[in-house]
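Support request from a user on the community tier.

User writes: "When I paste my structure tokens into the form, the page sometimes reloads and wipes my input. The last time it worked, I copied everything first. Here is what I submitted, just in case something in the input itself triggers the reload:"
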């Protein structure tokens, strides 16, 4: 997933109350604006086994896409059925790549929790079609890429 730096341990409402809704949206949804770094004295610093002190979606993208290209895309190119289960930010990063979502549009891109997205491919990794399996809970923005 993604390291929220100094915001680690705060829930969304607490974070909005402390920093404001617009700033929280920028940290959570923008492509290349990271949250404040986790300070050395942060109460959860010792529980996180990482040298990373905070990540933007760009940082997540730079971890997810090479793994996808090496391990998962070859299976898709062999016409294998692949199930990918992951958290929202990793999903956002991968869908940016697969669906060609711009850095600007990703800010407003909504992904419904727990609603599988079926993507079918033609040859050469071209998308044949895609849809949420629970159409009542699908997000229309997916089709406004």
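"...and here is what came back when it finally went through:"
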């Amino acid at each position: 997933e993604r390291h929220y730096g100094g915001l680690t341990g705060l829930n969304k409402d607490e974070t909005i109350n402390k920093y404001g809704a617009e700033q929280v949206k920028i940290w959570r949804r923008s492509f290349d604006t990271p949250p404040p770094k986790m300070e050395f004295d942060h109460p959860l610093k010792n529980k996180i086994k990482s040298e990373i002190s905070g990540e933007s979606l760009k940082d997540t993208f730079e971890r997810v896409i090479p793994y996808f290209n090496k391990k998962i895309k070859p299976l898709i190119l062999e016409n294998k059925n692949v199930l990918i289960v992951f958290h929202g930010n990793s999903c956002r990063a991968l869908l940016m790549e697969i669906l060609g979502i711009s850095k600007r549009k990703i800010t407003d891109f909504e992904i419904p929790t727990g609603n599988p997205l079926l993507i079918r491919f033609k040859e050469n990794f071209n998308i044949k079609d895609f849809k949420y399996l629970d159409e009542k809970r699908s997000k229309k923005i997916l089709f406004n890429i």
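Agent notes: The reload is a front-end session timeout and is unrelated to the input. Helices lie at 12-19, 21-29, 57-77, 88-99. The chain has four helices and two strands. Escalated to web team.
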